[in-house]
Structure formats: C-alpha cells, structure tokens
Write a structure and sequence with these properties.
This protein has 233 residues and is an alpha+beta fold. The chain has one domain: Alpha-Beta Complex (Fumarylacetoacetate hydrolase, domain 2), CATH 3.90.850.10. The protein has helices at residues 5-8, 41-46, 119-128, 133-136, 150-153, 182-192; strands spanning 18-20, 27-29, 33-36, 58-61, 66-67, 71-72, 81-83, 85-91, 107-114, 117-118, 142-143, 148-149, 160-165, 168-174, 200-202, 210-211, 217-222, 226-232. The strands form 5 sheets. Strands 4-3-15-8-9-12 form a 6-stranded mixed β-sheet. Strands 6-18-17-13-14 form a 5-stranded mixed β-sheet, with no helix packed on it. Strands 10-7-16 form a 3-stranded antiparallel β-sheet. Strand 1 (18-20) and strand 2 (27-29) form a beta hairpin. The relative contact order is 0.25.
C-alpha cells in the first residue's frame, strides 16, 4: 500500500522514468542506464583508441535523462554537442554473474537511443582524469524510441545501424560489428553490478559521430528494431 505523500515524505518524490512500449499502453520503468563505451572498432579508432587492447567499459546516464517527445534541447555550457546512435537493450530480469549462454533470457526488449554528448566538456574531463557525467549525463541527453518486446522481434544479432542528419547519412554500421555482443556485455556488466529489471544498456555506436546545431533533424534506426526521429531545438 502506498503511503500518502503529505505524511511520509518531506518533499514530493520524483516520478518513475519510463519508456513507451510499441503497440501497447503499458510502460517500461527505467531503473538504471548503462552505456558501453567504444563498442565498434571504427568508432574506437576515430576516438583515438585501439579496439584490440580494451576490455569493455561502462559509464552511466541517469534514468530521467531519457526523453521520448521527438526533440532534443541544445544544452547550455557547451558549443560541441555530438550524436551517437545506439541500440537499447531493456533488461526484464536481473541477476549477478549471468553466464553468457543465459544472458539473452534476461532481455525484455530492444529500442533505439541517442547518447547525446557534450564533447567539449567530456574532453576536458578526460584530460583531467575526471568522470564523464558532465559530458554524458545531462538533462535530455538520451532521446529514445519506444521499446519492442524480444518476444515479438527475437534477439537481433545483425542489422544496419544508421543515422542521417538533415537527410545526409552520417553513421552506418551493423550490429554484427559490435566488439562485445549483447550476451557478452550483459554477462560482463552483471559481474560488476547486480543487474535489475528495468535496467537499460546502450550498446555502443558505430563510426561517424559528429556535432549538431539547433534546427538539425536527426533520423536513425536499427534494421529489425525500429527508428528514431529527433529535432534539435
């Protein structure tokens, strides 16, 4: 039974961040957001790293960074904001030290997301050896599509990952190019954290990331999963 807000909380508690579910009026509640860094070799190279020498690493966005209204408000304190289109992996069943061969049993569904990045602020943080939140976990930094249940589309292991800016193709890759596949990233991540139902994993972006300006129109998707359409305002 839920306690009355006015007697059990000193302030009104925040709402639960959610993602819509395609074809349903039900919502997927978001617990945490884990982002896989440099999970496509060509993107790792364009960011100045050797993909053959790195184990997977993760950073986080905040659940309330997710927006689904089709707009991205250009943030303050930055003049170099980049797009990174990624497939979302929605966890429906948690666990610790999940075996690779059992990992897909924990996936509820998939979607499309943009890991919007204040690249100038991220770059400053890197130089100083500081965390990335100022560049990655700001308000509205995760424009996202509705989720599609795995029960409907299966578990896509291949499919074109693409993004157009104002109609021009900027990112083009394939899920089969991911260095760490979905079962591997779930297994590895569950050894670092206890995964919970409601967790979202942003699975990495292909090469071609770049800056956007106000007024830009971003269209992207993952074949077999869905599309995402966002206006920069």
């Amino acid at each position: 039974m839920n306690a009355p807000i006015d007697t059990h909380y000193v302030i009104s508690p925040p709402g639960i961040p959610t993602l819509p579910v395609e074809g349903s009026d039900k919502l997927f509640p978001i617990h945490r957001i884990y982002c896989v860094g440099r999970n496509y070799a060509e993107h790792a190279i364009e960011m100045g790293h050797d993909p053959d020498k790195e184990p997977p690493f993760f950073f986080q966005k905040n659940p309330d960074n997710v927006i689904t209204n089709g707009t991205f408000p250009y943030p303050d304190k930055s003049s170099d904001v980049h797009y990174e289109l990624e497939m979302l992996v929605a966890i429906g069943k948690g666990g610790i030290n999940i075996p690779v061969e059992k990992a897909l049993d924990h996936v509820w569904g998939y979607g499309i997301g943009l890991d919007m990045t204040r690249r100038d602020l991220q770059g400053e943080a890197k130089k100083l050896g500081r965390p990335w939140e100022v560049g990655k976990a700001f308000e509205a930094s995760a424009p996202s599509s509705a989720l599609v249940p795995a029960a409907k589309i299966g578990h896509p292991a291949s499919g074109k990952v693409w993004l157009k800016v104002n109609g021009a193709l900027r990112q083009s890759g394939d899920l089969n190019q991911m260095i760490w596949k979905v079962p591997e990233m779930i297994s590895y991540l569950s050894g670092l954290f206890e995964l919970k139902a409601g967790d979202i994993i942003m699975s990495g972006t292909p090469a071609g990331v770049g800056a956007i300006v106000r007024g830009d129109h971003l269209e992207g998707g993952v074949d077999g999963v869905g599309t995402l359409d966002v206006k920069v305002v």
